[in-house]
Predict the structure.
Amino acid sequence: MNLFEFCYGLIHWLVDLVNNLWYWLGDVLPWAFGGFFTAIGDFAASHGTMVTATILLEGIIVVAVALVNVLNFIWLDRKLSGRIFDFYGPYYVGYRIGGWLQNLADGMKLFTKEIITPAKADKLGFLLAPVIFVGSSVAILATIPLSPNFGIAVNDSGAGVPAGVLFAFAMFSIAPFSILIAGWSSNNKYTLLGGMRSAAQMMSYEIPLLLCVASVFLLSGSFSFVGVVNAQHDVWFAIPLFLGFIVFIVCLIAEVEITPFDIPEAEAELVEGWTTEYCGMRFGLFMMTSYLRGYAGGALATALFLGGWQGPAVIPDEIWFLIKAYCVFFVIEWMRWSVPRIRIDQILHLGWKRLMPLAVLNLLIAAAMKSMGWF
Amino acid sequence: MAEMWINMGPQHPMTHGLWNLKVKVDGETIMDAVPEVGYLHRGIEKICEDRTYTQIIPITDRLCYGSSFTWSHLYCMTVEDLMGLEVPERAEYIRVVGIEMQRIASHLMWLAAFAADLGMMAGFIYTMRDREVFIDLFQAMSGSRITYNFPRIGGVAHDLPANFERDALRACDYTEMRLREYEDIFDDSKIFRLRTEGVGLLKKEDALNLGVTGPPLRGSGVRYDIRKDTPYSVYPELDFEAKTHLGCDVFARYRVRMEEMWESCKIIRQALKKMPKGKWRVVAPRVAPEGTGVARVEDPRGEGMMYVIGNGTDKPYRLKIRSPIFVTVSAAPVMLIGYKLADVVSVMGSLDMCIGETDR
Amino acid sequence: MERAPSRIDQDPADRVLRALAEGFPKSVSNGAKVRDGFIRARVDRGDLYEACTMLRDRQGFEHTSMISAVEYDNRFEVVYHLYSYQARLLLELITTTPKDDPSVDSVALVWGGANWHEREAFDLMGIVFKNHPKLERILLPKDTMYHPLRKDFKG
């Protein structure tokens, strides 16, 4: 039973429950009042409304599950970094479950901080930039299904969004705009520099990223998650497209701004880069979104290259997906705490002069394989 | 983008200590740089004119709190030169052991800050942990972790504790093992090399003219180490080398400091073996004769020097302190102009700044 | 044809003292060797710049170790500690200025390393260095009115 059927059933039950009230009111009240309430009941019970409500509910459930995973990621990152540094990670908050509640505690702390807007900052840009950034990143989460049965679907076949992967990457690419707006509107030389560096880095790594994704599209013949994963039933795309996989992972790290590519928020030079002037939970949202994009990137890498939710039927599909996503994340985090930062002009050099030719080569390999009929 | 002046500091997570660096950038390239110091000026030279000679020793500890043994030792050497005192040999050996342990601890702290600036948090944590080994030894020797107040005019405050030799040799073995690991982590890391090679070039003529001393000078190819060329204390009897590197860049200075740590381990072993038994202190006269005293030492950061003028009382008439970083920072613009803004971190990190001694 | 090197000039300390005494016979006085590798001399402030230039160019003193300013009852003294890497020789050169006109020629153009030392001497003791490229206060705030290291400054 897939998510659509589950949510539709839930909405149907809820609507039936509430419609009792409307229909009773429609019977009891005379003249137009009664007709009014009956019309509401009919509207609520109509197929279109219920499907819309179902899609909204599905979205909430998928995003909620993904956000819990993001919290998990953050906790895992801190524990892992603690172990690499030879100390414990979060330990006391949530003592019996290994310090998992530390994230909630930090979130609560951020809520209680005073929110200061710089006097000369551009108010609209300053307030809007986090909204765009967080909103577009959460929208990515909504499109990633964890299995054929657990994702946003538009009808009860569980078909999913037809151009899911395309939409996910489109949302991924909105971020540089919001970073530029945030950096510029804070009225601060440091944030301006940080924002420009960040935007330059992200935009120059979008292209190899999307070229690798294009090679996957070529081999799978479809734009949706279900189609891409089903095309990997023989062999995961990471094996023929090994070069693409590596390039994808490197571009992902640059997009999400993780060391070695985290010069825009390099503490040593620019304090916090483009997020310097944000206080309290706004800053917390930026930080969380950074991990969120990391999770989203890991999930996308899993779906595109590592066979998504395919695996022995011992463990349910959703858990396979998550296991693979966590493995990708583990490798990224391991590298994060082991290497220094690269300078911005070296980052751009790497992106344009080294990764882009490799991505194009990867595309040619994919085209060759497709034309030989192997996929 | 137009040229603009950026103020890096004085409140900044990177700047080890409180100073200000104004850079004029055109996009990412640095056109001009003006360092500004003086935020930590405590008037130590004026204070010292109102303290007796022994009361000044804790004050000199706090000149550079990262390498405090060197400064109090330097001060004691200067006053012993003024008074014409002869220090017993055991005291000299104890001082040398302390100085070399301090050198390793100071270089490890430099490596920690350098790695943290470059983004490698793991390097920061590991080196600070390894520095604790020496801080524990200092605590056994003198009673405190960072500012020891241990050398005295005429020797050292008290003898070494029991088992110090065993612990110090163990510390040296452990440090050499860890130094091999650090060389693997840092030298073989392509990203570290990308950040440090070819950055912050300081040519030999500039280094000599601008008064730069210490690892930046030795990283530019000049084989000059005060411990070898104008030796003091018992250094003539110890066998070690002054290490140089011809690179003139940040990587060269990093290599010089790593090799200095190896040499320091060697020196500590020799000094512990050769240490004679005997007195560790002679009583110094309370009142100093009229005259002047000069002493120069090889601080972990360069050439430290003190000049004291006595006037027949128990307080100095004038105490002048020469700090190596004071001069090296004034040479910083030469190393910064023409490079990118992100290189400021590498270059200033390679100079190993300690503002306590700059501002006094 | 140059003179054959005489035995008198073998010892770098003696060579430097002779060069100073011969180059500036009226200004240099009290040239003495304090101990091995350390010599000391006094020079008038009028000839300081030429003496320093001669020391850097012909006697091989590439390095300025320290420039200190000392105040006595009736005069100021500026003490230069210069070091020669080749000869391993430390030279202490003392200049005197009268109390009401504490000014000396700047050697910041001879040795770049002397720049900040002179700024500090100006800042803390009030000695003016003529022809200094940028004589500003360095350790104290730029608008301070006094010179704290002077003996009449009681804080």
Observations:
- The two ends of chain A are 30 Å apart (CA to CA).
- DSSP finds 14 helices and no strands in chain A.
- The CA atoms of residues 287 and 306 of chain A lie 27 Å apart.
